[in-house]
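Figure 2 data, in text form.
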Amino acid sequence: MHNLAVLISGNGSNLQAILDAVDNGDLPDARVALVVSNRKDAYGMQRAFKHGVPVVYFPKLPYTNANRPRADYDADLARIVQGFGVEWVVQAGWMHIFTDAFIRHFPNRIVNLHPALPGMFPGAHAIEEAYAAYQRGEIDHTGVMVHLVPDEAVDAGPVVAQMEIPILPEDSLEDLEKRIHAAEHTLLISALRNLITH
């Protein structure tokens, strides 16, 4: 059995997709051993509670207030995650860039989901930036990727899976967001299944 830690900062719809995939056999030999949130109001924590999954709320503010470096936060979180026997770490809407103090404990075992294609729109506002680029006539599609996190580069690790998503003339930003999130759920599960079973 492969233990996953799913790291979230918000609604947790991708966490729900993982929990559902474990329940219905789409992720065989996998279980969510831990959910971590760095935001107190993240609804994803409620999803975890409903599934009986242990939840750790681990905010950055105490470290920031004490002027402690990000590496201290990352090292402490790594110890917590390791305590749950976790093999794979899945960043599913996790709004924090890890330093090597976390990454080195899970070599080639940190998976990140990003709502853009490789090399395009890194960072927290990828969907909005893609939509704006479309409106300027610069692109006609965007996409979603799942990649490994081997270092501190942002949204730039080895790509495990990707999917193109057209941007339609009638799309509002909300329409595009809905299609991207639906694609995220499918792509993340298939990528995890391939990683875990090979």
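Caption note: The domain at 2-114+144-162+185-197 is CATH 3.40.50.170 (Rossmann fold).
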